[in-house]
Design brief:
six-stranded mixed beta sheet; alpha+beta; about 240 residues; CNF1/YfiH-like putative cysteine hydrolases; 12 strands; single chain
Length: about 240
């Protein structure tokens, strides 16, 4: 197990936004080591410790933070302080969270899907949204929903680690609607480019500044969990964010 490693986005404004990796936690086996997902076969006590470590590293309050019951949809909810270290906590059924409250940390989990952060970057009061975006969510319009809750205009965004176009093989039932929605070139040789699809969705929704990390979770076995690479038996990384 290595030291906890976060991938920071230098968001334009009073924000803290970080994408976690699998490094620096207490889980072992296929969940080594910073597994943040309780809905896995990992020991829940270890997952709680991992979440505490993440919050400490990100200077976030775990008791005032919140998560979501992710459904691969396009609903974005306002963050409510439910805490993220008590197993069995009931969260909103959604795939996006947003907040304009200082210190209200939000955490969403991924294991190949895209973690996306969107921030106001103009003269308005600061506000953030974070999204869990798989292929279903992108087609359902979660990016547009994440932009609308912030009022549109003057926004910046970051696209975090996910399965890349090097590894994401899809069938025509996924490829065809993606080509129609985002352009023929987002599917090449049967592999889907989620990064470019998300960037185009963000630009179409009005995001003016977009940063892509282009880190493949499937390729990076030492750094990331991957549902597809590990055939479903794997942990979860995520995105944690708040208005500072």
């Amino acid at each position: 197990m290595g030291d906890l490693a976060l991938i920071e986005w230098a968001a334009p404004g009073p924000y803290r936004v970080a994408f976690s990796t699998r490094l620096g936690g207490v889980s072992d086996g296929p969940f080594e080591s910073l597994n943040l997902g309780i809905r896995t076969e990992d020991d829940p006590a270890r997952v709680v410790e991992n979440r505490i470590r993440l919050c400490e590293e990100a200077a976030a309050d775990p008791d005032g933070a919140t998560m979501a019951w992710q459904r691969h949809g396009a609903t974005v909810s306002r963050a409510q302080p439910r805490g993220i270290v008590t197993p069995g906590t009931v969260y909103d059924h959604c795939d996006g969270l947003w907040s304009d409250e200082a210190g209200r940390a939000m955490l969403l989990l991924t294991a190949d899907c895209l973690p996306i952060a969107i921030a106001r970057a103009d003269e308005r009061p600061p506000a953030l949204s974070i999204l869990h975006a798989g292929w279903r969510g992108l087609l359902a319009g979660i990016v547009g929903a994440g932009v609308r809750v912030l009022g549109g205009g003057g926004l910046a965004a970051a696209i975090g680690p996910s399965i890349g176009p090097c590894c994401y093989e899809v069938g025509d039932e996924v490829a065809a609607p993606f080509r129609e929605a985002f352009g023929d070139d987002v599917v090449r040789d049967g592999k889907l480019d989620l990064w470019t699809s998300a960037e185009r969705a963000l630009r179409a929704a009005g995001c003016e500044r977009i940063e892509r990390f282009d880190l493949c979770t499937s390729c990076g076995a030492d750094t990331f969990f991957s549902h597809r690479r590990d055939h479903g038996r794997t942990g979860r990384q995520g995105v944690i964010a708040y208005v500072a």
